[in-house]
Structure formats: structure tokens, C-alpha cells
């Protein structure tokens, strides 16, 4: 298992992003949206409409939408900093390689993305998005996983593992230990 450290200075949401994705990536966005009179984060439409569409549905003008986006982006800067890392275990790398082989996706990369329920998942793609950060495992370097700076703001320091036939995303706890599994992450 190897950990790659990458640092980037900018992460930003945009009004073209889906509301649920914004709230998943920036939890403080829910409170900020409430201050603007928006309840989109709890609405079923928030999973399919962009922030801009939701704001227009509530009669907001462009200046107000821009101010909302700015306030949410300011919240990113005040959030606790997480390591800009993802660790991929050798078991996970092997399992991903097997899936890629079975699905004829060899040579493609995986991105960590937000699903429609607001959770994080892995998705095959041919190329990463601009600015995404590359992670791999020395035991399976052909398996490459990419994550955006915003995603790393929520799950940075996590370990992707394969246990009990399922992929697991182990997040570090407050002490910096991966998912409380002290044996799995090397914390003492």
C-alpha cells in the first residue's frame, strides 16, 4: 500500500453543479442555502437540478446567485483541512483490475464521484477531468484513481479497500487513523 500526497490550492463549486453534489462536497452549503431561503438540499429535485436552476425557480437574480456561490466557496476555505491523499490497498487494486478486465475497461481510469444519493462511488472513465489528482498502488500501478480537490476536501486521507467482497471507503477519524482500523492503516 502506498500513499501519494498532492497539494492544490483551489477548489470551487459553481452554479452549474447539482445541488446534492454541492451539499455532499461542502456540508456547510446546506446552512448557507437556508440563509438564502433555499431548501433545495432536502428537496428531491435537488438531486437533479443545478444550483442555478434551483435559484431561478425561487426567483433569485444573477447577483444573488453569484453571492450565494461566493458564500459557499468561502465555506470551503474555512472547513477543516483534510490530507490531499487517497490510499488504495493492494486488495482493492487487484479487485478493480479484475472488474476492468471483466467489463473490457482495461486502460481506463476510475474517478471518485458523488452518486445521486449523495454518497461517493467509483466510476470508470477514459480520461480524468482537468485538475483531478492521480492515485495508484505500487502493487497494481495500472489501476489509477482520480479525485477532485473538492472530493478530497471531504474524503481526503481515506483508504479504499476490498473486504468481505465489497469495496470499503475508510475515512480517517479525528485522530487521523483510517476508519478506526489501527492495524489496517499503520497508526499506533
What is the typical, i.e. mean, pLDDT? 80
Instruction: Identify the CATH homologous superfamily of the largest domain.
Output: HesB-like domain
CATH architecture of the largest domain: Sandwich
Shape from CA axes? elongated
Q: Which CATH C-level class of the largest domain is it?
A: Mainly Beta
Q: How far from one another are the termini?
A: 17 Å
CATH level 3 topology of the largest domain: Hypothetical Protein Aq_1857, Chain: A
Strand order of the largest sheet: 1-2-7-8
Query: What is the percentage of strand-forming residues?
Result: 15-25%
For the report, how would you describe the main beta sheet?
Answer: 4 strands, mixed
How many domain units? 2
The number of helical runs is: 7
Structural class: alpha/beta
Radius of gyration: 18 Å
Helix content range: 25-40%
- Following the backbone from N to C, one meets helices and strands in this order, namely EHHHHEHEEEEHEEH
Low-confidence blocks of residues: 1-9, 175-188
- Total beta strands: 8
Features:
alpha/beta, Hypothetical Protein Aq_1857, Chain: A, four-stranded mixed sheet
Describe this structure in words.
A 4-stranded mixed β-sheet has the order 1-2-7-8. Helix content is 33%, strand content 22%. It folds into 2 domains: 19-78; 82-185, Sandwich (Hypothetical Protein Aq_1857, Chain: A), CATH 2.60.300. It has 7 helices and 8 strands. By secondary structure, the protein is of the alpha/beta class. The longest helix is centred in the middle third of the chain and has 17 residues, at 62-78. It is elongated.
Amino acid at each position: 500500500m502506498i500513499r501519494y500526497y498532492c497539494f492544490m490550492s483551489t477548489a470551487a463549486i459553481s452554479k452549474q453543479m447539482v445541488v446534492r453534489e454541492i451539499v455532499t462536497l461542502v456540508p456547510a452549503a446546506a446552512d448557507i442555502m437556508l440563509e438564502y431561503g433555499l431548501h433545495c438540499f432536502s428537496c428531491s429535485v435537488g438531486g437533479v437540478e443545478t444550483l442555478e436552476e434551483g435559484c431561478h425557480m425561487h426567483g433569485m437574480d444573477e447577483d444573488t446567485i453569484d453571492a450565494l456561490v461566493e458564500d459557499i466557496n468561502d465555506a470551503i476555505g474555512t472547513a477543516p483541512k483534510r490530507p490531499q491523499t487517497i490510499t488504495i490497498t493492494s486488495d482493492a487494486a487487484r479487485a478493480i483490475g479484475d472488474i476492468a478486465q471483466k467489463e473490457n475497461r482495461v486502460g481506463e481510469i476510475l474517478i471518485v464521484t458523488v452518486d445521486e444519493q449523495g454518497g461517493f462511488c467509483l466510476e470508470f472513465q477514459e480520461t480524468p477531468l482537468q485538475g483531478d489528482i492521480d492515485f495508484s498502488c505500487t502493487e497494481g500501478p495500472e489501476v489509477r484513481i482520480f479525485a477532485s480537490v473538492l472530493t478530497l476536501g471531504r474524503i481526503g486521507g481515506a483508504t479504499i479497500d476490498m473486504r468481505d467482497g465489497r469495496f470499503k471507503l475508510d475515512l480517517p477519524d479525528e485522530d487521523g487513523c483510517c476508519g478506526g482500523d489501527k492495524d489496517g492503516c499503520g497508526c499506533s
